[in-house]
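From the shared-data thread, chain only:
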Amino acid sequence: FLYFPKNCSKNKILNDLKLHIPFEKITKNKKNIQIKKIVIMQGGSDPNRNLIRIFHCIKHMILNEKKIIFHFHFGLRNKKNRDIKYLINQKQYFNNLIISYDLGSISKVIKNCDLAITACGVSALDFIYANVPSIYVSNEYKELNTGKLFHKLNFGKYFGKITRNNQNKLQYCLNDIIKNYKIRQSIFKSMKKNNLFNSKRNLLNLII
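Structure, as tokens:
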């Protein structure tokens, strides 16, 4: 999932993972029937500006679903970033919109999260470990393949790239998972059934 070169030793991979995956701080989230918090993430840099694309795709839902918190997390970037400044400015129109950036621990973002829209890198593993169903959005070839794998394993729903032709479909996809608890229940069962993600050791075994 981190796409290490084939000649990397297991020790190097494990040491690198300790810097990226804070399993010790992440707890399994409760399985709420009613969605209370949705986290939207696209890795640390988001070179394709997918967070802004996602915001425009679902902004009507953010406005209408006032009881749900929509938390956009920008990773390790500063307040001068143009996309952060744009979304912070948008907060005046939405009481249920949270913007975060430059947090030292991803566990603060994932805590009490019921659903995620995420890329398919390390963050996707964090959400699976925390029992959080996800919609997988990315522009990267390898991440798209990972998203398809997670979709096949029923850990979430694969969406892929956001384009002009499919941007309206993201809101429909998100709405289906919010309104239909059976979809999330099916994902929870798949996560529980696949014990590779039930412990840090099993997850590391899967990766290496």
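DSSP finds nine helices and six strands in the chain.
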